[in-house]
Every structure is written in C-alpha cells, then in structure tokens.
Amino acid sequence: MPQATPAKRNPVGKNIDELDTACLVNRNSCTENSELTLANNKGHNAPHQATGDQDDEVLCCEGLSKRYGDFDALIDCSVRIARGDIFGLLGPNGAGKTTLIRLLLGYLHPTGGQCKVLGIDPVADSVEVRRQVTYLPGDARLPRHLRGDGVLRFFAEMHPLGDLHRSREVAEILELNTKTRVAFMSTGMRQKLALAVVLGPQTPLLILDEPTANLDPTVRAEVLRLVIEARDSGRTVMLSSHVLSEIEDICNRVAFLRHGRLAHELQMSDLFQRHRMTATTVGESIMVPDALADQVVVRTTPSKTGRTRVQIDTAGDLGPILTWIDSLCLTHIRFEPFGLRTVYDAVHDGQSFLGAKKTLPDRVSDEVSS
Amino acid sequence: MMNRVLLKKYIGQSSLLFFSCGLALFAFSWIRVWVVSLIDMGQFQTIVEQFREFEKFAPIEFDSLFTYPGRVGMTFDEPIVILCIVIWCVARGSDVISGELGRGTLEMVLSQPVSRTQLLVSHAAVSILGLALLCLLVWAGVGAGVYATTVEETLPPPTVRIPIVGIDLPLSVDDPQTQTLPLRDRVDVRVFAASTFHLFAFGFFVLGLATLFSSTDRYRWRTVGSTVAFYILQMVMFGLGKAAESLEYLLYITFFSCYKPQKMSSIVASEGLAAPWSLTHVYSNIWLPPMVYPLILIGLGVVCFSLATVCFNKRDLPAPL
Q1: What global pTM score does this model have?
Q2: What is the pLDDT of residues A93-145, one digit of tens each?
Q3: A113 and A78 co-located in one domain
Q4: DSSP per residue, B153-198
Q5: Which residue of A128, A145, A158 is in closest CB contact with B13?
Q6: CA end-to-end span of chain B
Q7: What is the distance between the alpha carbons of residues B29 and B142, in angstroms, rounded to a whole number?
Q8: Are A247 and A88 in contact (CB under 8 A)?
Q9: Structurally, how many domains does chain A consist of?
Q10: Which residue in the set B9, B103, B316 is minimally distant from A141, CB to CB?
Q11: A197 contact residues in B (CB cutoff 8 A)
Q12: In this structure, are A288 and A266 located in the same domain?
C-alpha cells in the first residue's frame, strides 16, 4: 500500500502539490496569466499584485530550447517556480543552468519554446523583466576603475528599486571594505561586492548563479542567511550552485539539468522522507510485499564470501518498512538519509531511482494518456 | 533613449583618454601654427616648383602653401591630428560592446533595467560629444596659435618698371626692410570652421564603423584590428586612385575622398566664408557641393550606428570568458 505523502508546504504556506497540479492542468496558463500580470506591472515600479492562484507563479518556461549551430545548450526545458520558493538549479558544468538563466533575462534569444518571468516575456520586454529581477552572474565582473562604494552607488542609481543603504548594509555584513578599488580586490572580495549590489534592490525575484563561489565558509553561511532572509521577506529566489549541502539547506525545490535537458525535479520535503539501507544476507532472494512495492527498491549484489549485499532505497514513512525489514534476517544493517548527493549522482549517471519525480513534460504526457 | 547613470559612467571611463587626446591636439595645433611663422616658404618656392607633377597627391594646390591660411590649414591634414582623432574614435567605438564583453562588465550592466539601445545610444552620445570637443580643441589650438604668433615679413623695396621691357628694378640696394605683424592680420580663424566640421565628420564615420564592428564581436582586439584594417585599406585605395589614372575609380569608393579640410580653406579664400556650407553650388576642383562631402561621411556614420543597434539587439550575449 503506497504511503500517503504528507502535504508539502512551501515557506509562504502554499501547498506546493496543489500549485504543481494547477500548473499542469493549465498548460497554457503561462500565456494567459502573463497578460494579467503584465498589466499589473505596467505602472512604473508597480509592485506585483496577486490576482488569483495563478499569480503565485513567478516563473514558467514551456519547452524552452537554445541551439548554437549543431550544439543544443538547452532542450525542451519546462520549469515553473511559485512565489516564495527557493528554487535550486543543479547540474554538472555545461548542463545548461546558466543558459536557462540567461534566456530568462533576455541575454539570449530562445530557439524554441517560451518563458514568462512574473508574467513578462523576456523576448518581448527584457527591460521590464530586469526591472523585477535582480541577477548575480556566475562570474560577476565590475568596473575596475571604481571603488567598492562607487560600484554600490552606480548600481543603486541604475535600478529603480536600488537601495544604496541596504547594499552598504550587506557589504558590512559580508565584512567588505568598500573603500578599495575593484581593480585591487581579490576574487572573493569582488564576489562579496557583487552580492551587495544584487541584494540591495528589493525585487520580487532574485536569480543567483553560484552565489557562494570563491567565498570562505563564514561568509557562505552569511550569504545563505541573506537568501533565506530574502525569501522570508516575500521574495522568490532561484539559485544555481555546485555545493549540494547549500542547496539541501535552503532550497525547497530543486531541478537537475543534464546535457541541456531537465532531467529531474525534486521537492526537498520528499527527499527528507527517503533513506537508503545497506545490509548483508545469506543468499536468499528478497521479495517485496505488494503493499510496499512503490515505496522500496531493492538491489542485491552477490559477494565472494557467499553472502549477498542488499541495498534498499525507501520512500515515505519508515514504520511499515522497518517491520518488513525486520522480517528479512539481515545483518550489518546501516541506514542513512537519502542525501541530495545520491540523487545528484543518480541523475548524473542517468539512473532511475525510487520515487523519482518525473519531470514536468513526462507527468503531463502521463495525464494526457490516462 | 539615454540613461543618465550610464552617461556618467561613460564620461568617467573616457575622461583620461579625452584629456590626453585633447591636450595633444590643442598643443600640437598651437605649435603647428607657431612653426608656420618660423618658416619662410618663399625660400622653398623653387624647390616646391620642381615637384609640381606630384601636386595631385597633395590635399591642396601647391600655391596654397605660400599663403598663411593655406599653411595653417594644413594642420587638419597632419598625421598627428588624424591619429589622435582616430585613436579616440577606435578606442571609444570598440569599447561599447566587444570591450565591455571582453572585460565581462556588460553582464552586470545589462542585468539592470536598461535596454541595449539605451546603452548603445548613451555610449555613442558621450563618444560623439567627445569627438566634437576634440575637433573644437584643434580649432581652438589653431586660433590660439594665430592670435599668439607674430610673423616677420619682408617689405618689397620700391621699384620702377622699365617700359617696353616690363622689368621691375629696385630703387634701393640696401638690405630689404622687414616688418613684424600679428598672424591674425593675415589669417582669419573663421576660415577653418568648415575644416573643423570636416574633421568631425571624418571622425564620426570612423566612430560609427568601430561601433558597428564592436556590436558584432566579443573581442575588442579583433574590433580594433578590423577597423584599422578597413582604414588602411581605404587609405591605400585613396593613394592608388590618385596615383594611377586607370585606378581613379577607387577614389569613388573610399571615404578619404570626402575628407577635404584644406579644400574648404581654399574655397573660403576664393569664395568667402559661407561658400563651404553650400549644398547646391559646385566650385572648381571638386565634384560635388562642398557641404555634401561631410554629410556623406555623417550619413555613413549614421548607417553604421543604426546597423550596430540592430546587430546588438539581435545578437546573443555570451557569458564572460
């Protein structure tokens, strides 16, 4: 009997499953809803006004693709981010994370699909998108002839929602000396400065491409705290990172990209319900009861000693699973939480694993076929 | 169309180059006029006459070299003046997109709510204003030189003409008398207004061309290379067009044919101050009305800027390397 998954709630109290379903049912809502939201945003610096459930969707892409000659940088990518999410973007180098972000901000022109950021199409009006979004590039380079404070002032003046006071505050939190010229700053100092620039304006959406790169552990923790603070103040955050522990700590949703494709999507609350058990047994085959069929995946590997190594991946409530495991006469049992690392490796190796939530297009095609 | 903060940024970025080029142009123009006062071209007349067949390579008739306005006007064809203007135009034009892309700073600037057109127009506005000021500094340098320099002229001795033979005989055998007078008595600085405008038009085209190359590239060194290569190619075409009659058609396809600052000085000398600004009247030794030439350069520059805007808006912006 499949275990009922508890309702997942995002930080602003919305039921994410409901949001996902709403997104799936309204496949075309991306376009329709955008007109409403665009109308709301047309006033200069007008704050985003929620006009209904669909307005909780901050970002949606449908089949977004980017092709350079023969090379597909991004293929048929469909992603939706709800208001208040901290959405993690994971994938190896060259997987398409930065391409996706650059498409959302209008740096690149898509070769297929469409996307809306806060209801605005970046292809049609990328300036309006950037009025509502602050973006930290993966390799943020700043005018070298300016001093730190000059850079903060420059960007605070550039953005209609710019807040020099807040930027200086962030710089102080990150222990950055803003009197130094950018040309004489270390890589880490420049990253801190870029973060102070980006965390100044209070835009509804914050996109951070590897925000903690080149930072020491203390500052990393501060940055993550600032990201959570941004989320708590009602902003939505999308961040890409290679540091899995950071994603695990702060994100509530994660997407994995591989070879330009969206390989997997994950609710972090799902992940916390997953475990991997390893043990050994004496050559017996293990039968999974029907009631637990969709909650466990068993892999067995015979060893030279005549014993069989067993690996059981579990999802959901451990209670009934433990009862079953207890009946298996296993030895050397070890349980460990199913970390993001495991999922990442599985996605990277192209493996399937228990509870793998299908990516959006697969789920939709399932619905259509049913 | 323009962004105040970007304007401020570009002014700050270009100020060092502007002051360097401006100082060089002003000082050189001044000194160039002063040097004019030191050399008595009359002494070189015989030598110059021997090179009459090469007159076609010169930007003006040799006769102009023996007049003060003609010699002062040569300032606008001096390699140093052209070099400084070209340096400004290529440096600023190549900076706008490929320069910022190369430095990686375009990413952060364009993450702000500014359109690509706004960025390009703001940059172009600062560069064009800088170019105009540099051209005015050349004129100001010439003006300062003209007002600060005195020239010594030899007074022709009184003569008597022998009838029938028609020979002038001097009435005195003493050393010729000289008089010192300010150069401004011989040269009207307003003569060079049209030449200054030609210099601006020349720079405007080069600036537009560099901006166009910059908008399609991601490496500044390649933009600079392409612009300089085009410039040299056009210059060679201009030289060949003048050298061989069979290659005269090359003169029609090089922008150097439209740069005629000294011709403008000559026209002013013969036709008056308003003559170079005519859009209808064709004067001797030029194919078109004088004002058409700089307007062709400015028109080509506008086309380059427009194409640059289209290219920049249509292109994908790569991530910094």
Answers
A1: 0.81
A2: 888 999 999 999 999 999 999 999 999 999 999 999 999 999 999 888 999 88
A3: yes
A4: EEPPPPEEEETTTTEEEES--SPPPEEEEEGGGT--GGGGHHHHHH
A5: A145
A6: 29
A7: 5
A8: yes
A9: 2
A10: B103
A11: 108
A12: no
pLDDT in tens, B83-101: 999 999 999 999 999 999 9
Its domain, for residue A205, covers 57-270
How many whole angstroms separate alpha carbon B148 and alpha carbon B182? Answer: 8
Give the residue numbers spanning the domain of B75. 4-151+182-314
Q: Are the beta carbons of B205 and B297 closer than 8 angstroms?
A: yes
Whether the CB of B114 is below 8 Å from some CB of chain A: the reply is yes
Number of structural domains (chain B) is 1
Question: How many contacts does A have with B, using Cβ atoms within 8 A?
Answer: 68
Inter-chain contact B113–A135, Cβ cutoff 8 Å? Answer: no
Q: What is the ipTM of this complex?
A: 0.81
Q: Which of B5, B104, B115 sits opposite A141 (nearest CB)?
A: B104
Q: What is the pLDDT of residue A207?
A: 96
Same domain, yes or no, for A177 and A231?
A: yes
pLDDT of res. B109 = 94
**A283 and A200 part of one domain:** no
Residues B105, A197: C-beta atoms closer than 8 Å: no
Backbone φ and ψ for A237, nearest 5 degrees, come out as -125, 135
pLDDT digits (tens, 9 = 90+) for A36-87: 333 333 333 333 333 344 568 899 999 999 999 899 999 999 999 999 999 9
B5 vs A contacts (CB less than 8 Å): 154, 157-158
